[in-house]
Amino acid sequence: MNSVSVRQTRPEDIPALIALQADVYPDIPPWSQRRLREQLEVFPQGQMVAETKDGLVGCASSLIVLWDDWAESHNWKEITSSGTFDNHNPQGKTLYGAEVFVDPRLQGKGVGHLLYEGRRSLCRALNLKRIIACGRLPGYNKYADEMSAESYAQKVVWGDLIDPVLSFQIKEGFSYFGVIENYIPEDTESRGNASLIVWLNPDYDPSKPTIIPEKTAP
User: Which domains does the chain have, with CATH numbers?
Assistant: First the structure.
């Protein structure tokens, strides 16, 4: 595999990102150019891509939220304002992971790790308290007739089952805190379920403010 680097998303990346997303999620409609432009306008620092010399191979998008507003229950459309990121709030202390996807041909090759590391670096740089995300459970569909999504996720955390997403997130240092139902209803592999996960920033300093840089052209 060619060397992979992570950088901030640029407007000219948008067509390639839409094509890549369609390859990763053939059963879920990809984002539109308008939505991706809106995300870049709202919080450019939170939008990242992974690339090789041959082109884009992954993406990670995020926004900042006041987690108290969403701690009990939410779905993807609510917390991301249907992908516009209008709920982005620089006064928050939580970096919310809205999306991560990797070229199917390169999954398991370290691209996801680099994107997650990019998020952790951003969380540290902005002096945010944590990263929270809701991850798909694509392996659950095989076990849905045998057990609840909560039981499935617990077995993944315990190491009795392997889930392509949650197992990876546990290895990346995230802690599991339960299942959210109807997070993405269109996600048939997960039966609409998602795992709530969190990573705490060990460098967070509550005596200092969150540092949001001035917007710059990507």
Answer: 5-200 (3.40.630.30)
